[in-house]
Amino acid sequence: MEFFIKKGATLPVLKMQIVKDGRNDFRNFMEELENAVITFSMRDEGTGILKIASKPAYIVEKLFDNPDAPAEYYIYFQFTEKDTKSTGRFVGEFSVTTAQGELIVPIRENLYINVTDSFIKTQYCCW
């Protein structure tokens, strides 16, 4: 998965949908997630140096107009300006720790965060 954010930006929020894969009892899994500790880490793809180390991440339910729609849940992380102060390509992961153990997300493919140059000036000059 590829995610793009501008240098110095805090938006967009990084979010990943929790997929109901049929291997687990989804309702019990969601009850465990309510009490889970969720963190986000990000390391430089080239050097392997951590840029973000185990910062808090959160879970949210998507609300629908139709009350009969199946529930959707997302894990998300809000970047700070410090998190995106340098450009580059990074590998991110969410750690979900429950009573059953630790789960690293994403499972099937890497999550790449691309911090790109911004076209907005962050330094202002007045004469």
- Provide the helix percentage: under 10%
Which structural class is indicated by helix and strand composition? mainly beta
Beta-strand fraction estimate: over 45%
Number of helices: 1
The low-confidence runs, each spanning 5 or more residues with pLDDT under 50, are none
Largest sheet: 6 strands, mixed
Query: Shape, please?
Result: globular
Helix-strand sequence? EEHEEEEEEE
Overall mean confidence score, pLDDT = 87
> Care to count the β-strands?
9
Span of the ends, CA to CA: 45 Å
Radius of gyration: 17 Å
In short:
The chain is mainly beta and 127 residues long. It has one helix spanning 26-34, and strands at 2-6, 14-18, 37-44, 50-56, 58-62, 72-77, 88-98, 101-105, 111-116. The longest helix has 9 residues, at 26-34.
